[in-house]
Amino acid sequence: MRSLCLLSVLCLTGVSLADKNVLVLLENLTVKETHSIYFKNMVDAGYDLTYKVADDATLNIKKYGEFLYDHLVIFSPTVEEFGGNLGVETLTDFIDNGGNLLIAGNSNLGEALREIASEVGFEADEEGTAVIDHLNYDTKDDGKHTLVIADPKNLIKSDKITGGVTAPLLYRGVGLLVDQENPLVLEILTGSSTSYSHNPDLPIKEFPHAVGKQTVLIAGLQARNNARVVFAGSLEFFSDEFFTAKVSPVGGESVDSGNKELAMAVSDWCFKQSGVLRVESISHHREGEDNTPNFYTIKEQAVYTIVVKELVNGEWVAFDGTDMQMEFVRIDPFVRVTMENKGGKGEMVANFKVPDTYGVYQFKVNYHRVGLTRLYTTNQISVIPLRHDQYERFISSAYPYYASAFSMMAGVCVFSMVFLHYKEEEVKKKTE
Questions:
Q1: CB-based burial of residue 124 (10 Å sphere; 0-12 exposed, 13-18 middle, 19+ buried)?
Q2: Strand ranges (E), 95-213
Q3: How confident is the model over 123-146, as pLDDT tens digits?
Q4: CA dist list (Å): 332 to 60, 126, 301, 364
Q5: What would you report as the CA-atom Rg of the chain, rounded to the nearest whole angstrom?
Q6: Which of 33, 48, 146, 266 has the highest count of CB atoms within 10 angstroms of its CB?
Q7: 37: left (phi over 0), alpha (psi -120 to 50) or beta
């Protein structure tokens, strides 16, 4: 019995840790010491970390057609080529198969990370450049104004991603640009309107690569398969030094930095420990009934119910959203209705009237909000016309035609009676 209980505990633990297997690729083993607070918090959060050097010749993330890790952390900014069989194509395939990727760079970004960035819709500035802000910098700066103070107001408006951080942030690294035409890319943290990206040791002779709030400090991507990628232009952002530092703006008071809170919140989001939705059940039926029908008849009242759960602090709880919509689609939506969140159980309910056009339809829910995984479900159902005994006996809109028909019948009767009973008088001859 005791061994059975132990087996059950291990099974439950395996389920809870199944999506927390992380491979950490380091520039060198020193990074493990300089970023120890970040890694300790990851371990405390339940992640199983495996450390390797990025150019390790034995590096392998795939075996027998299956990926060995759920998430990758790349803290190796200057790597030119990964070791083993790991390459840009392998990492792209990893993302296509639902894997999540967290990358941190610096001003000397290697070619390997630049290729990954371009694959997911980001572009890093040239080697040797850094984000510069002559108005928002820390007093500990070395005079180049590259130790930038990022305002939390420039964070993306999603607590699922940022964790609601309100403290100022320290940043020293390369600037990023994102593809504005890519709807999957997220600007998690941008520079202020006075920031720009350039080499601090060279005079400015050309327009900078990124200027103002176009200068992205941390970028994100949520693919259509809900795989997530986060690219930070600063490895120091995750360091012990920045986690424990005081932010000292010029002419302002020193306050604790929000780097640690934001780093952990972004990591949890990237590794799908927050902002994750799942569908628990779907049902539909005629109003007043409980069983799911094989078809609907036009103009019937239908009820559609979907139960949605959200992952919060490692537990699935009822989703509290109130803006989820359901569409009843036959090529184009015939019905679009905002569902009502009932009972605090994540139960979304839509009541609607089936269209008066028969055909093959779909119940479709396509819910996409910033910070949440995309929810997409379809259920096919047929809509048939009325049977011969279901039509109305008399249609009110046809009353003029009824009157016309009956008036014609009455007219024929009157005409027939007149015609049959009318007798013309005979015309008398002249002789008579």
A1: buried
A2: 100-104, 122-124, 130-133, 148-150, 169-171, 176-178, 185-190, 195-198
A3: 888 888 999 998 998 988 888 899
A4: 46, 47, 20, 11
A5: 34
A6: 266
A7: alpha
